[in-house]
Amino acid sequence: MSGIADVEAGAFHSLARTSTGGVLAWGRNNSGQLGIGSTVTKLVPTAVAGLAGVVEIACGRDHSLAERGDHTVAAWGLNDAGQLGDGSTTNRATPVTVVGARSAVGLAVGRGYTVVLSTS
Length: 120
Prior knowledge:
Layout: E1 4-9, E2 13-18, E3 23-27, E4 42-47, E5 54-59, E6 63-68, E7 73-77, E8 92-97, E9 104-109, E10 114-118
């Protein structure tokens, strides 16, 4: 596949960041971790709608993140422990903005958590 700048893998899903700043996702999608607006599993890379200018991606076990060029962060997927950072515990099948992450310069994720490295 040409035009891929970065690839990340979660437990059962994967993300690819394109050289143009888009995001592709594939694999298991039981919690919406592909960010495609449904929980349908995808066997081929599928575009994550609504994301542009992405400079970094990260996969947790069942959630995903993308840092945009403006240093904001989008998250989607399982949110049982609040790992999406949107102030809820509702799973999201499309990207939502992480509250308060306005100066992100790095991402780290795990099974039920998210860490955003910030300049402020």
